[in-house]
Design a protein that fits this description.
The protein has 66 residues and is an alpha+beta fold. It has 1 helix and 3 strands.
Length: 66
């Protein structure tokens, strides 16, 4: 897989990097992080180790590193 391209594979929402469905599908597996554009249908509240009140709806965006 080549280096992700901004605007095609991800975009920024404030300080957060959000991966696109295209990128996540090309990656080939679900990371079970609750990504906003998850093509595998996973929701973070489906995790067996998830506390019932731990999710605020913004769990699918990752803090960018720089």
């Amino acid at each position: 897989m080549s280096k992700p391209t901004e605007g095609e594979d991800f975009y920024f929402e404030g300080p957060y990097m959000v991966f696109t469905e295209k990128f996540l599908r090309a990656r080939g597996y679900c990371c079970e992080s609750g990504c906003r554009h998850c093509p595998y249908g996973f929701r973070r509240d489906q995790r067996a180790d998830a506390p019932a009140d731990a999710f605020d709806g913004d769990d699918d965006i990752q803090k960018s590193r720089g």
